[in-house]
Amino acid sequence: MKATLLTVAMLALAAPVASQTADEIVARNLAARGGLEKLRGIRAMLLTGRISLGPDAEGPITVRVLRPDSIREDFTLQGSAGARAYDGHTGWQIVPGSGKGPEPLSGPDLANLQDEALNGIDGPLTDYAAKGNRVEFLGTADVEGQRCYKLKVTLKTGRVMYQYLCSQSFLEIREEIERTLNGKLLTLEEEVGDYRETGGILFAHSFVSGLKGSPLRSRLSIEKIELNPAIDPAVFQMPKPPAAKP
């Protein structure tokens, strides 16, 4: 009898999960964040905060994002300025402390930045099909004691990420994403939290990430988010080298 009751109880618990579809879960996530129309209304975004890669590598960071697919990140680590940007056609970076000027990006590094640019404002779930992303519902998973819905998102570039949405709030609390580092395909884990409202929309302000299986973690703390500020598209373009002196 106990076994029968247990089986019935498990089936009852599983039934709501089985009835969920990827689109239903995505719709609940978008509603929890503030609604699809509000998210679509964001044309540009400016984020300021701090990034920490360790006790001796911490500094300010500014991120500009402009639809449809432009992004620029400016940061300072150990007193040296760095940058990464994509203007919809070309990706480039300035490596802090290298003494070099802007360098073009290609291959996996460029693909990583293209993913960030396309999904940087409203995430990969908003209008995912129009962005070229695919979403699959993989069931439930436990994340630090919280029951979550697990979504597999295949990005336009072909990279795969997994989002874990709290079954109560439908907000993302963890993410796993493929990244290529030094020619190796690795999985990056990220804990997402500290949601706050800006313009009627909930945005996460805390991101703690690191390679899967490694205890080392980097932290990104957002201090301010501005929606639809005036951003000159020219800031995303790769700077031209200074003219040679005669």
The SS-based structural class is alpha+beta
The CATH class turns out to be: Mainly Beta
Q: Gap between N and C termini, in Å? A: 93 Å
CATH architecture: Clam
- Rounded average pLDDT: 89
CATH names the topology as outer membrane lipoprotein receptor (LolB), chain A
Shape: globular
Unreliable spans are 1-18
Please bin the fraction of helical residues: 10-25%
Gyration radius from CA atoms, angstroms = 20 Å
Number of strands: 13
Oligomer: single chain
Strand portion: over 45%
What count of helical segments does DSSP give?
A: 5
Using brief descriptors, characterize the structure shown:
alpha+beta; outer membrane lipoprotein receptor (LolB), chain A; 13-stranded antiparallel β-sheet; 246 residues; single chain; 46% strand
What do these coordinates show?
With 246 residues, the protein is of the alpha+beta class. The protein has a single domain (2-236), classed as Lipoprotein localisation LolA/LolB/LppX (outer membrane lipoprotein receptor (LolB), chain A), CATH 2.50.20. Helix content is 21%, strand content 46%. It has helices spanning 2-19, 22-33, 36-40, 107-119, 128-131, and strands at 44-54, 57-66, 70-77, 80-86, 91-94, 103-104, 134-143, 146-154, 160-166, 172-181, 184-198, 201-211, 218-227. Strands 6-5-4-3-2-1-13-12-11-10-9-8-7 form a 13-stranded antiparallel beta sheet, covered by helices on one side.
